[in-house]
Amino acid sequence: MAKYVLKRILLMVMVFFIIISMCFILVKLLPNKPAEQFGKDMQLIEMRREALGYNKPLIEQYGIFIRKTLIGGDWGISESLYLGQNVWDKFMEKMPATVLVNAYTMLFAVPLGLILGIYAALRKNKWQDHLISTLVMVFVSVPSYIYAFLVQYFLCFKLKWFPFQMVAGYDYFTWDTFVSLVPAILSLGFGTVAGLTRYTRAELTEVLTSDYLLLARTKGLSRAQTTVRHALRNSMVPIFPMILGEFIGIMSGSLIIEQIFGIPGVGPLYVASVTTATPDYNFFMLLSAFYTFIGLASNIVIDISYGFIDPRIRMGSKKNG
Predict the structure, then answer these.
(1) Does residue 77 sit in helix, strand or coil?
(2) Residues 278, 80 contacting (CB under 8 angstroms)
(3) From the CB of residue 69, how many other CB atoms can be counted at a distance below 10 Å?
(4) pLDDT over threshold 60, residue 256
């Protein structure tokens, strides 16, 4: 197991560096705004560019970039979005809003998805199961931004239950802030609920029809006892890593949903860094590294967790013979 974990981590680091290197090279192929156009901040921008080796060969710039950013933690200053401000500090300022809306989404979506999946499996081939399965297929197939528009139209515009966008400010733990986040939570949560419901139903249905549960029933256990004691525990083995991966990925946020509902998180920051008239390459590199790392970390945590959750699994081991 230790060998497998080490191998996965090394592969993750290799993939991470490949992606970041590609982003760095592509950014360097794009034109930079002349420092003279920054007015009173010209000297500051020029100094930062000099420190990053803008006037040196590409390979030297890459070495400076790795040393200063990934090793030293200095991602530079903003050159357009927040002129002259430290990129890392602004990123950390935006992070709580992204984590909060995604944490609320998981707290709403995971229990509901498990409950609906379990209920559909227990009512297999009955009208309840067909109804839930049909709704799941609809919700899985529709992108989250479509839900966002529907939620805004019906709940915010027609019924006026919620505001169209998150309330301004950084006091995230007030009731008004939570209410203003509900439309975004619903928009993000529908797809997660549907996916988890489908996965839970499929796993539990397979376990409920297995031979060892039939044996347990013949020994006198009731259906409720076999379901709770055996079926649910065994079906959670492949489901729990999926849930764990969702929680690991809460920091990744949603680029579109955060933009639609005015959430001051890292999603809109990432979009703005490449869509403004003057792209902010320092923000782009930091956020590209962040999203890449979160995606790779989620996958490796899911894979490794299987071995810890189920002792029968020994990943990376070879069969004897």
Answers:
(1) strand
(2) yes
(3) 21
(4) yes
Instruction: Collapse the DSSP code of 74 into the 3-class scheme (helix H, G, I; strand E, B; otherwise coil) and give the result.
Output: coil
Residue 190: pLDDT over 50: yes
- pLDDT greater than 90 at residue 210: no
Q: Can you tell me the distance from the alpha carbon of 220 to that of 224, in angstroms, rounded to the nearest whole number?
A: 12
Identity at 170, one-letter amino acid code: Y
pLDDT tens sequence across 133-170: 899 888 888 888 888 899 999 999 999 899 988 887 77
Tokens of 240: 């729990």
Q: How far apart, in whole angstroms, are the C-alpha atoms of residue 258 and residue 289?
A: 19
Residues 235/310, Cβ–Cβ less than 8 Å:
no
Q: Residue 151 and residue 9: Cα distance in Å, rounded?
A: 40
Q: Tell me which H or E stretch contains 95.
A: helix 87-122
Closest CA to 135 of 177, 74, 197: 197
Separation between Cα atoms, residue 122 and residue 203, nearest integer Å = 12
